[in-house]
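Hi L.,

As promised, Cytochrome bo(3) ubiquinol oxidase subunit 3:
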Amino acid sequence: MAHATAEHSHAHEAHESHESLKVLGFWIFIVTDILIFGTLFACYAVLHTHTNGGPGAKELFEMPGVIAETFILLTSSFTSGLAVLAMHKGKVKQLIAWLAVTAVLGAAFIGMELTEFVKLVEEGHKISSNAFLSAFYTLVGTHGLHVSIGLVWMIGLMIQLSRRGVTEVTTRKVTNLSLYWHFLDVIWIFVFTVVYLMGVM
């Protein structure tokens, strides 16, 4: 009996250390991401005036759309917070519902961003047109790619939650996903300020 208990506690400890390793891995991922975005912002800061005689930010950016994108993403950050609250109350259906709302808002954000890109490209402002546009598409596109990855992760998690409910593993995943989503929100506020607001001023 004592042997079984020792084995059980050993397995539990191993599981806990495995979980904390995953949490550490997640934070390392976030730190690397901060470095990537930091580099892209630095490149943009250097290159945003290099328009090669073409139109700059002031001529190209349409602020009403960008403000709507920002509002949508900020709202999705709020709904992802509500999902975490529902999880802590053990309300699986509410948790899945708030994640679904967050995913819809995230998809709307991506849709608007893609529409903006397509419109710019159709007007002849491609990534290869000049250094400013290269830096713009790379920075904003990298953020959009991260949001898309978050959406795939969110959909996978909703499926897992509907099958398994709130477990130690799904709790960690929801917490990490919510942190990741808030992180993307913070990055977007920098994008909005540095690229768009300062661009049109």
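DSSP finds six helices and no strands in the chain.

Thanks again for sending the construct details.

K.
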